[in-house]
Amino acid sequence: MTTQDEFVQQAKEQLDHWNAEIKKMQAQMAEAQAKGQEQWKQQIDQMEAQRKEAEKQLESISKANTEAWKDMQSGFQNAWKAMQKSFEDAQKRYKG
What we know:
single chain; mainly alpha; 3 helices
């Protein structure tokens, strides 16, 4: 079983990865034609909102006692999966 500290570290690493991916997409958006920019912006805005929610949950988990963090882990993992799906969808849609 993953300890709370290990889980928090893994989650922080994933958030760092998402931040890097968002930055890559922002750079690609800058190169996109005007027609596609609004779609990029909407997708990035959505991913940033999901990332912020995951960061809030992670902060709560890192401050929680042992019993509470186990319950919170499930909610964070759901947010994690939603974020991953957003990245996959964006990469499929805008790969070029």
